[in-house]
Design goal:
The structure is a single chain. This protein is mostly beta strands and 59 residues long. The protein is built from no helices and five strands. The strands form two sheets. It has a three-stranded antiparallel sheet, with no helix packed on it. It has a two-stranded antiparallel ribbon with strand order 1-2. The N and C termini lie far apart (29 Å).
């Protein structure tokens, strides 16, 4: 598990999420500040985060 800090694409606050390093995937998590859904895409290689994207899902 890895704690990763990034900026929410809705409220622009810095937030953190715990990422599972054993899985590279796309999934939805809610912002801990504004509660809007964020689409997260992670890519891990050799237990290192090599790509991360957080974007709004424009509901």
């Amino acid at each position: 598990m890895l704690e990763h800090f990034f900026q929410c694409p809705y409220c622009w606050e810095e937030i953190s999420m715990i990422l599972d390093m054993s899985v590279s995937e796309t999934y939805i998590e809610d912002c801990e500040v504004c509660c809007n859904p964020i689409q997260l895409t992670t890519n891990f290689e050799n237990n290192e985060l090599i790509a991360f994207e957080a974007k709004n899902i424009e509901q």
